Prior knowledge:
Blueprint: H1 2-18, E1 36-41, H2 52-64, E2 69-73, E3 75-76, E4 79-80, H3 85-91, H4 104-114, E5 118-122, E6 128-131, H5 136-141, E7 156-157, E8 160-162, H6 168-184, E9 189-192, H7 207-216, H8 229-253, E10 258-261, H9 268-273, H10 277-283, E11 288-289, H11 298-309, E12 322-325, H12 335-347, E13 352-356, H13 365-371
Parallel strand pairs: 1-2, 1-13, 2-5, 5-9, 9-10, 10-11, 12-13
Antiparallel strand pairs: 3-4, 6-8, 7-8
Helix pairs in contact: 1-3, 1-6, 2-4, 6-8, 11-12
Amino acid sequence: MIKITKLLTISIVVISVLSCSAQKTVKNKIDSSSYIKGVWVTNVASDALTSNDKIKETVQICKKSGITDIYVVVWNRGRTLYPSKIMKDLFGVSIMERFGQRDPLQEMIDAGHKENIRVHAWFEFGFASSYGENGGEILKKFPNWKAIDNHGNLVLKNGFEWMNAMDPEVQNFVKSLVLEVVKKYNVDGIQGDDRLPAMPSLGGYDPYTIALYKKENNGQLPPNDYKDPAWLTWRADKLTVFLGQLYKEVKAIKPKMIVSMAPSIHPWAKEEYLQDWPTWLDKGYCDYVIPQIYRKTIESYTNTLEAQVSFLKGDQKKKFFSGVLLQVSGINPSPEFLKEMIDANRKAGVNGESFFFYEGLKAFPDYFTKEYIKK
């Protein structure tokens, strides 16, 4: 553990020195506290990042569609989508192989800022190590980083294999990637989602977490029922502390950097993935949240939206935006349903949303360029 921690620390120091030559952040005219019209840009089921020309095309479509914020993936399947010294030092590969010598993140920043669009680095995989790869290269090299369930197995949920988000060494690794981007790039923000900070509630039965729980609970073992309420809260609180530390460190480097989170809906997110985003807002550990309100009917969408808004306190509504499902597996909502969801947001006092994902913008050219841009 000492060697790995030392290696990560050295990498961060080097990146800090290099960051002195990084470009200054472009000052956007849009007030980030007033509204967002965002979209997630992925490297899956999309050619948006396949070349610099495609990135420029992506930005132009976003601009015409009224998009103010692009959340571009930078961490996926155990690879970064930017040249990472940390990944090079630990795994011998600095960037996802398909991108060769390119830097898609810098290309997106350049293109987005030219059009006055904010660009956020989206750490999509978070604490997930792989998808359908039995832990991938990360857990092959560091098997002690595995998240373990109550049967002693690697935590697997919906095809994703997970690192142990409770382990300080794992936390330091993921944090180091985030801080590397913060220091090296003039991004407007960084973003976690339903995998950062997160871990399936199946996990927590590894030796480190068991020992920590016993230390803090008079020698008692964690409940075998992974949905035990107190056990859920104990682990969720650990992830909240991690987010607070990450937020503090990001702001110490760049005070104006936006730290946003796109978790699942509450309380399901806490019960399934140990994400307690109302507490994140209460403690001031993120600048805003975009819960993923992915629903198939307007009735379900409206009811879920109202439920999420009910968890907000005081003036927190200005820190709350809605995640809207725009395309999945090539399927889009009907034009009527899309309009109804946006209207429901405004009626609820939610002044913005982010769409999953970019390719869906192309399915509604008239709506986005003529109607949505005015909302």
